[in-house]
């Protein structure tokens, strides 16, 4: 049975207000701490100004705050229910014959809408700002070096066969690898050449290797000022492959995964992130279930502090389960779909069980 429109809108406003207050508080706290840390780092940077540092902190904060959205829904829902209980509004609702399942409907709907909005709107914005933050951070804090300083391994597949790239690093645009060694294989998987080059730049449809030395088991070594290797990769795709999955907007993830699959690049982390985003609305609903299971006790019965502590403990356990499943999914032990959906499904089922025990048990 659905709750009345007027009462439903009132309860929904309470959920929206408290969730927004919790999230805004966390957002402001994250921004302040990040700004202070960046100002500390800016002491040795010649290009740093207070305005640029403030802009950088603003660009970085949405992606960090996105990670705590589930807890904003949890604590915001707890606050809304506790406030309604303190004002005896839940008592009146129960006296009017409205069950907990009915007055929780607005909370579930709000959680669902926030979850969908966070995936389809907030995530693309935060991912785009995170990429801009990385570029701005490089311009502010970069040194004279042009490479990332991190060993890079890359495997690709093309019409000529397979190739494995090892590079000492990449230039800041991430489309050029430096200190490159390439191992090439034919279509049957047999080794053909080892190529050493000063740098390799990816163009549309091919790699350009400069100052390359080609070695094989059957021919004499050859030196080439310019050597080409076919590739299905695109420069933008290569840059994307060096970007963390949470820096790729939701709407670009499927295309990114498809392109990386065609180039035989490991996409486990990207698939996991995509599935986690798809499961986010259900995870937010699970947070409302958890909040309801520890927040429906009447104030006059006491024990409010224990209720809040129970909600914090439940949220922490769900967080640990989410991180554990994410690690298992990232390592390939379990599928990305199971790793992403398991915490949300189990949290919803346990919350439902707790409500059934309280209301109907």
Walk me through the structure.
- It is built from eleven helices and six strands.
- The protein is an alpha+beta fold.
- Helix 1 crosses helix 3, helix 9 packs antiparallel against helix 10 and helix 9 runs parallel beside helix 11.
- It is elongated.
- The chain starts with a helix and ends with a helix.
Q: Which structural traits does this protein have?
A:
6 strands, alpha+beta, 361 residues, 16% strand
What's this, in brief?
This protein is α+β, with helices and mostly antiparallel strands and 361 residues long. It is 61% helix and 16% strand. A hairpin with a 5-residue loop joins strand 2 and strand 3 (176-185).
Please specify the SSE layout and strand pairing.
Blueprint: H1 5-41, H2 50-66, H3 69-86, H4 89-95, H5 100-103, H6 105-141, E1 152-158, E2 161-170, E3 176-185, E4 191-203, E5 206-215, E6 222-230, H7 235-241, H8 250-262, H9 268-295, H10 304-330, H11 336-359
Antiparallel strand pairs: 1-2, 2-3, 3-4, 4-5, 5-6
Helix pairs in contact: 1-2, 1-3, 1-6, 2-6, 3-9, 3-10, 6-9, 8-9, 9-10, 9-11, 10-11
Q: Uncertain regions: pLDDT < 50 for 5+ in a row? A: 143-149
Describe the largest sheet.
Answer: 6 strands, antiparallel
Order of helices and strands: HHHHHHEEEEEEHHHHH
Strand content: 15-25%
How much helicity do the residues have?
Answer: 55-70%
- Average pLDDT across residues? 84
Going across the major beta sheet, what is the strand order?
1-2-3-4-5-6
Structural class: alpha+beta
Total count of strands = 6
- Rg, Cα atoms, Å: 26 Å
